[in-house]
């Protein structure tokens, strides 16, 4: 029996049970017809069961099945299954974007479950990982800095975040991003937690930090709005799928 992580255009195939719950297909054979050109990728085992992933060309429309966006599956799947679905989506994205060698242009072929090798020059590649920091900046005991990125789709406020640049430590990235986006300085940087962010291939590294001076001025090319907010007067904040929410909740509960 295998767990089948089947994607179409970024949506995951789920089985809808009679009680209203959802699960990924668990069977010996794929629940949908596959052709020779559909490449199966082997994933790590989950609870002792093999896992595979594949990308299909058209969504499944049939009673008892549904297609759901990966982020939405966070609310309906157990955490280990959601995390494996994220890994599966990253593997499929990597496979689709590394068909040809970046050095000589020849076709790439799978070498291991997580590497490809050029059929001509032998160059080997692995799935990339884009590392980003995210930070809860607090001022005193009762204020937290919340901002709205112009990339947010919903009307909520989150935390300062940004990608780590070449030759930069995580702490240097944190200070730079906070300064660039808000013009304030921070101190007492502390690691909080990390989170895979498979949209498509990220790793979020969370920190807390204390305000250390400067007048808040938002970088309008990156942020729509933002400011200092007190515990009893927070605006809409990110959902529980995100590390931002975990950081904000930890601040609310005096755990930072």
Q: Overview of this structure, please?
A:
The chain contains four helices and 16 strands. It is an alpha+beta fold and 256 residues long. The mean pLDDT is 95. Helices cover 18% and strands 38% of the residues.
Give the helices and strands as they follow along the chain.
Answer: EEEEEEEHHEEEEEEHEEEH
Q: Please give the largest β-sheet.
A: 7 strands, mixed
- Given as residue ranges, the uncertain stretches (5+ residues, pLDDT < 50) are none
Number of helices: 4
Q: Indicate the proportion of strand residues.
A: 35-45%
Q: Averaged pLDDT, please?
A: 95
Sheet/helix structural class = alpha+beta
Shape: globular
- Helical coverage, percent range: 10-25%
Number of strands: 16
Distance between the termini: 43 Å
As a whole number of angstroms, the C-alpha radius of gyration is 21 Å
């Amino acid at each position: 029996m295998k767990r089948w992580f089947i994607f179409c255009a970024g949506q995951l195939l789920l089985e809808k049970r009679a009680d209203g719950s959802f699960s990924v297909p668990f069977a010996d054979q794929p629940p949908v017809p596959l052709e020779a050109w559909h490449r199966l990728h082997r994933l790590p085992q989950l609870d002792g069961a093999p896992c595979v992933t594949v990308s299909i060309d058209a969504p499944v429309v049939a009673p008892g099945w549904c297609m759901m966006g990966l982020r939405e599956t966070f609310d309906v799947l157990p955490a280990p299954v959601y995390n494996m679905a994220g890994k599966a989506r990253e593997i499929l994205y990597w496979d689709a974007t590394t068909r040809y060698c970046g050095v000589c242009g020849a076709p790439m072929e799978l070498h291991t479950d997580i590497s490809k090798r050029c059929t001509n020059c032998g160059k080997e590649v692995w799935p990339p990982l884009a590392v980003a920091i995210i930070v809860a900046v607090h001022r005193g005991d009762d204020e937290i800095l919340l901002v709205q990125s112009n990339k947010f789709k919903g009307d909520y406020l989150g935390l300062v975040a940004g990608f780590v640049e070449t030759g930069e430590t995580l702490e240097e990235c944190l200070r730079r991003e906070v300064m660039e986006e808000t013009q304030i300085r921070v101190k007492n940087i502390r690691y909080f937690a990390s989170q895979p962010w498979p949209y498509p291939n990220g790793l979020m590294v969370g920190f807390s930090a204390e305000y250390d001076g400067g007048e808040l001025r938002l970088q309008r090319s990156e942020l729509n709005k933002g400011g200092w907010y007190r515990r009893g007067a927070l605006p809409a904040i990110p959902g529980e799928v995100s590390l931002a929410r975990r950081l904000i909740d930890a601040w609310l509960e005096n755990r930072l």
